[in-house]
Structures
1.
Amino acid sequence: MPQTVLDRMVKFTILGKSPVNAYLLLNQRIWKHLPYSLVNAPPIRSYGAFLQTLVRLQVARTQNFGTLFLRNRPQLELMRRLSHQKAAGSTLKIAVLACSKGAEVYSILRTIRADRPDLKVVMNAVDISKEVLEFAERGVYSLDTPELTGQPVFGNMTEDEMQDLFDWEGDKVRVKSWIRKGITWHLGDAEDPEIVNVLGYQDMVVANNFLCHMYPPKAENCLRNIARLVKPGGNLFVSGIDLDVRTKVAKDLGWIALSDLLEEIHEGDHFLRDDWPWQYWGLEPLNKTRHDWKIRYASVFQIGAEG
Ligand SMILES: C[S@@+](CC[C@H](N)C(=O)[O-])C[C@H]1O[C@@H](n2cnc3c(N)ncnc32)[C@H](O)[C@@H]1O
């Protein structure tokens, strides 16, 4: 169906009520009872894609601070594996863009430093919000009243992992000092063309779960800007983004999609996966019948490598 017709359908109301909204709510009620294996069956997957198109036309995109420690474990595992390409005692430069409350930054540092204590890991953490950046830098989290968002940041952690990452301070926890060292916190905009002059080139650039909150043309420009930060031969981690946008930029710029843990990383963020097709950021099920699946569902790339 042409986009303009869908657009008109979504905006149409009867006595102030949207029939499309009612249709979506009814579908969502039924969908909740479908097992995941059925959701990925071809006709249902296509129907889900249609429903998400309606959701995307209906819901305005807005940024939020939602984040979690150890959010996507296979992604962290791939960072650990890639860190082994570095010589003993060398420096590994990482930039985490849109770091929010810092959970992602600390999760990465804990993963790499525990495995490669010989490396000097230099971390640049960037966010556009001063409030959230100052919070992230403190590295102190309430155990029972999540700050700045309604969602707890520990939802993905075991008791042992909590002990490994934090020191207890009453009803709060503080990230351990061996994890917190070597971080520079930058108030900055990932869309700013000057960002490469501020941060310099990086071995790894992480840009997760904020490009999905931008409309596609803006997300595309931002992604092209972010890619300039990656050293030739370095890696870009980018998930939580419109898949058409990521695929287009990856193809245009000749990025090499890494196949290691591709499927595990795609499935690794349950929140994105479970929100499909009901939220605009929901992640479609991996569909291996697509001719372009190896690039469409890759979220880790090597950029600017010779040959
Ligand atoms: C949903 S959180 C993502 C947190 C984290 N990356 C993760 O995956 O868990 C989105 C964050 O992006 C930040 N943000 C939004 N637009 C940005 C931009 N243009 N440059 C830098 N940060 C941005 C917001 O302030 C917010 O903290």
2.
Amino acid sequence: MAEAALCWCGVIAVGRCTDCGRAFCTSHQAAENQAIGWHSPPSWVLLPMCIDCRARQRAQADQAQRAAVVAQQAVRAARADAARLFVEAMLAAGSPGISS
Ligand SMILES: [Zn+2]
Ligand SMILES: [Zn+2]
């Protein structure tokens, strides 16, 4: 009989992380409070990964989201700049009908 895999804390493991491959016990398995269906209230869903990898994944997602927000702000600022420059150029060209 094969020896049961142990979690890094020494407790018998219930699964293996799909990310780092480590075995995890019930208290070191990642779980997430999420809604399964449209009508059902959020409930704890066990994930096939360890809590460390889940934490890292979450940190990476947060970072990506922050980067996306910064990029969005940059695009918005660039658009506002372009619009202003366009109006300025039209005014400089003596275009009638445009007022700043
Ligand atoms: Zn892991
Ligand atoms: Zn454990």
